[in-house]
Write a structure and sequence with these properties.
The complex is a heterodimer of chains A (283) and B (126). Helix content of chain A is 35%, strand content 20%. Chain A has 283 residues and is of the alpha/beta class. Chain A is globular. Classes of the chains: A alpha/beta (283), B mainly alpha (126).
C-alpha cells in the first residue's frame, strides 16, 4: 500500500533557481537563505521517498489564458523544464510516475475532484525551484515527481477549503494504490509578496509567521481565510499560499512539525519552508 | 466598489482584465519561443500587428511602461516575458511599477519590504 509519509511547503521564487543556476548561493545576499535549506535537503535525502507530488502553479508556461484548469495532474513519463522567456532552466528533466498519477486522476475524479488530465506539459519555476530547494544541484532528480497544478493566477482561484479537501482526497487516493510507495507531498508558493502594481514589494512577516505557526496545529483558521485576506494582508501574489493547504490536507491531523525556516527577502518575496511528518503507524 | 478594488496599487486579474487583456497576454505568451523573441526584437511594432491590441497596450509595450501594461489588462506573469526578452528581472519590473529606482526598491526589500501598514485600503492609504 502506498502512503503519504511527509509534507514539505516552500516558496518557489524564480530568483532562487537563478541564484543556483548562476552559482551565486554563497554570496552574502543569498547565503542566509540557502543555509536554511541545508537541513531540509538532508532530511529529504535521508527519507528517500519513492514519489513526490508537487502542488504548484503554472505561470503562463504549460497553460496560457487559452485554457485555465483549476486543478490539473500530469500523467506523463517525462516533463521538460519550460522556457519562461529567459530560456529553460539548466536542470534535469522531471520524470513522472504514470502509474500513481493515473490512479490519482481516476480516484480523485470519482471522489468528486474533477481533475484536468495532462499528457503533455512543460514544468516552470513553480515546480523546478522547489525541487532545487529540496534536492540541491543534481544530475538527475532523486525520484519520480507528479505535477499537480492549481490555478492561482486567474480570479477566482479555488478556496483554501477546497485546496485542503483536495489534500484529504489525495491522502485517501494514495492509500488505495496497490504498490508499496513512500510518498511526499510538496505545497509551494508564497509567502507574502506582491509582484505587480504600485504596491509591489509588499511583505507581511506577521501574517507569514502566524501562517507558519497555525499550519501544523490550527489549520482550521487558515482553511477559513477568504481570498481578500491573502490579497490585502499578504500581497496579491501571496494567494499562492492556498497551495500549502493541499499539502496540509494530505497529511494526518496529528502530523508533527520537523523544521521551519523563514527569510526576507528573495527578490520580491518573503520565503518560508516547513516540513511536516506523519506519526509512524502504530501496530 | 468591490472589496478588491479598495486595495491600493493592486490590479486583481479578474474576469474583466482577462477579457480585455486576452490578446495582449497571448502576445506576451508568444515570447516563450526563441524565434518569436528574435522577431519581436527586430521589429516590435510589426511583430505586435499579429494580435489585435489596443492603442494603450501597444504604447505601453513600445515605451516599456510596465505599470501601463498592467492597467491595460496585462498580467504580471505574461508581461514578465517581455522583461525576460529584454534580459530584465522581476525586481527591475517591480521597481519600475512602484515608481522608484531599482536600487531604492532593492534597499526597501532588504529592509523587510513594503509594510502592510498604510497599504491595506485606499482609505487608509490616503
Amino acid at each position: 500500500m502506498a502512503r503519504v509519509v511527509a509534507g514539505l511547503a516552500t516558496s518557489h521564487v524564480p530568483a532562487i533557481g537563478a541564484a543556483m543556476d548562476l552559482g551565486r548561493t554563497k554570496e552574502p545576499y543569498w547565503k542566509p537563505l540557502f543555509d536554511g535549506y541545508e537541513p531540509a535537503r538532508k532530511w529529504l535525502a535521508d527519507l528517500n521517498p519513492d514519489v513526490i507530488i508537487i502542488v504548484y502553479n503554472d505561470h503562463g508556461s504549460a497553460f496560457s489564458l487559452e485554457v485555465i484548469p483549476t486543478f490539473a495532474i500530469g500523467v506523463a513519463e517525462k516533463f521538460l523544464p519550460a522556457d519562461e522567456g529567459w530560456g529553460p532552466r539548466p536542470v534535469p528533466a522531471v520524470h513522472g510516475h504514470p502509474g500513481l498519477a493515473w490512479h490519482l486522476a481516476e480516484s480523485l475524479i470519482l471522489n468528486e475532484f474533477d481533475m484536468t488530465i495532462v499528457n503533455e506539459m512543460t514544468v516552470d519555476h513553480g515546480l523546478t525551484v522547489p525541487l532545487s530547494i529540496a534536492c540541491g544541484e543534481q544530475k538527475n532528480w532523486p525520484c519520480p515527481v507528479i505535477p499537480l497544478s492549481v490555478n492561482v493566477v486567474q480570479y477566482p482561484p479555488p478556496t483554501g477549503k477546497r485546496c485542503f479537501d483536495l489534500g484529504r482526497a489525495i491522502r485517501k487516493s494514495v492509500k488505495t494504490y496497490d504498490k508499496d510507495l513512500k510518498v511526499v507531498v510538496f505545497g509551494t508558493g508564497g509567502m507574502s509578496h506582491q509582484l505587480h502594481g504600485e504596491r509591489a514589494g509588499l511583505i507581511n512577516s506577521k501574517f507569514d509567521k502566524n501562517f507558519l505557526a497555525d499550519l501544523t496545529r490550527n489549520p482550521q483558521r487558515l482553511i477559513e481565510l477568504p481570498h481578500i485576506e491573502y490579497v490585502r494582508e499578504a500581497g496579491a501574489e501571496g494567494i499562492e499560499m492556498v497551495m500549502w493547504l493541499v499539502m496540509r490536507g494530505a497529511l494526518d491531523e496529528n502530523a508533527v512539525e520537523i523544521y521551519q525556516h523563514y527569510h526576507v527577502p528573495a527578490s520580491n518575496t518573503a520565503t518560508g519552508l516547513m516540513i511536516l511528518e506523519n506519526q509512524p503507524l502504530t501496530v | 466598489m468591490s472589496e478588491f478594488e479598495d486595495i491600493p496599487g493592486t490590479y486583481l486579474f479578474d474576469k474583466d482584465r482577462c477579457h480585455d487583456g486576452y490578446q495582449f497576454n497571448m502576445f506576451c505568451m508568444s515570447l516563450v519561443k526563441p524565434k518569436n523573441r528574435q522577431a519581436f526584437r527586430s521589429d516590435e511594432a510589426s511583430y505586435m500587428d499579429k494580435w489585435s491590441l489596443t492603442e494603450s497596450q501597444r504604447r505601453s509595450v513600445l515605451e516599456r511602461d510596465w505599470l501601463g501594461m498592467i492597467k491595460a489588462g496585462g498580467n504580471i506573469y505574461y508581461t514578465s516575458k517581455i522583461a525576460a526578452t529584454d534580459g530584465r528581472s522581476f525586481q527591475f519590473v517591480a521597481a519600475a511599477m512602484s515608481g522608484v529606482p531599482e536600487e531604492e526598491y532593492r534597499s526597501m526589500m532588504m529592509a523587510g519590504g513594503r509594510p502592510v501598514e498604510g497599504n491595506r485600503s485606499k482609505r487608509e492609504a490616503d
